[in-house]
Amino acid sequence: MRKKTTSRGKRGVNLPHVFGAASGNFYQDVLKKSPIFTSPQACHDLEMLEPVTRDAVKQVIAEAAKLNHKLVPVETYRSQARQAYFFRKGLTKIPTVGCHHFGLACDLALMDTSEPDPVGEHYAFMRHLAETAGLISGIDWGRPNLPHKFRDWDHVQRVTVDDQRQLFAETWYPDVNYRPLQRLGRTRITEINDPILIQPQRRMGAAHPTHDTLAHTGCCW
Ligand SMILES: [Zn+2]
């Protein structure tokens, strides 16, 4: 008999036990049931990241440590209430939800000193680490050859920008086999010293000075 295959990560994938027997996806089964699902507070709990994303973020942090960089998660899950609050304050272009809301994005502050580094370019090394871990970096959204106007230096996510539409519509969720860089047709990972096409006049999305202030300097998905 033909085995039922996974469709858009809805079921049948080899996910950790936290999904339970009749699992849908991490957003439906874990985030929506979390007591902080509607919290307006910042969340930096890695457990609120979808498991593949969580492992990838942990890998980025570990690899950064080998380079003597300290990365600290400052925002993982984000509620609609918090996103709407940011929108009212003019700190994001997205009024309702972003990848953070689905447990598929993380902001990592560079803490090589006692303060989060606010200089976006200092996060350039993260792009290579993110891609090595299977994530898209907000530095170039997986498209290193484009001169992006919007860069979110401390942001990583496990979904392409194009796939965000169906994610936000809750009609799709990435399964464990989803590979955003492959989805973009990428055949190589950026090296750590590959140049970033900087547009100095529009350097947005520098690091969040702290996770619970309104110091976002740019927009965030
Ligand atoms: Zn972010």
Provide structural commentary.
The chain is α+β, with helices and mostly antiparallel strands and 221 residues long. The chain has one domain: Muramoyl-pentapeptide Carboxypeptidase, domain 2 (2-Layer Sandwich), CATH 3.30.1380.10. It is 22% helix and 7% strand. The chain has 6 helices and 4 strands. It has helices spanning 26-31, 51-66, 80-88, 125-132, 164-168, 180-183, and strands spanning 71-75, 105-110, 136-137, 155-157. The radius of gyration is 17 Å and the shape is globular.
The total beta strand count reads 4
Number of domains: 1
Percent range for β-strand residues: 5-15%
At the fold tier of CATH, the topology name is Muramoyl-pentapeptide Carboxypeptidase, domain 2
Poorly predicted runs of 5 or more residues? 1-22, 206-219
Main beta-sheet strand count, sense and barrel state: 4 strands, antiparallel
Helix coverage percent: 10-25%
The level 1 CATH classification is: Alpha Beta
Helix-and-strand structural type:
alpha+beta
What's the arrangement of strands in the largest beta sheet? 1-2-4-3
